[in-house]
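#lab-general

N.A. 3:47 PM
ok so I finally got the sequence cleaned up, no stray characters, all 120 residues accounted for. can someone with queue access submit it? mine expired

B.Y. 3:52 PM
send it over

N.A. 3:53 PM
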Amino acid sequence: YFDDLKKDIVNVYKKLFDFLSLEYDSFDFSVLFKKQNQAKLSKGYLKWINVFLSKTGIKNLLVGSLGQEMKLKITNFVYTDKFVPKLSIEDRKIMLDYFKDDIEKLEYLLGQDFSNWKKI
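B.Y. 4:20 PM
back already:
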């Protein structure tokens, strides 16, 4: 369950490795704690430059020819996570009302408590 993964990612991965009969003694678990694929938006006027470069294909050409360190520097310059919209309390309530019956059915089918899914 994703909730288990959030609570104890290393233990979940070890169980997965055991299930797949894979060795994990040499696995670098530190990679699991690096944030990947974070939501970010282009900063101000850079948004339009980014759109132009993406639509013309220039962005793909540039990204493919740059090293990882330079890509990271450019990404940090162009994008920010400050303006990523958050789900409002009202929208959370609507979603909970919509999915509550399904959550309860899933709890019954799996014999698992998903009460934390029902919190606003």
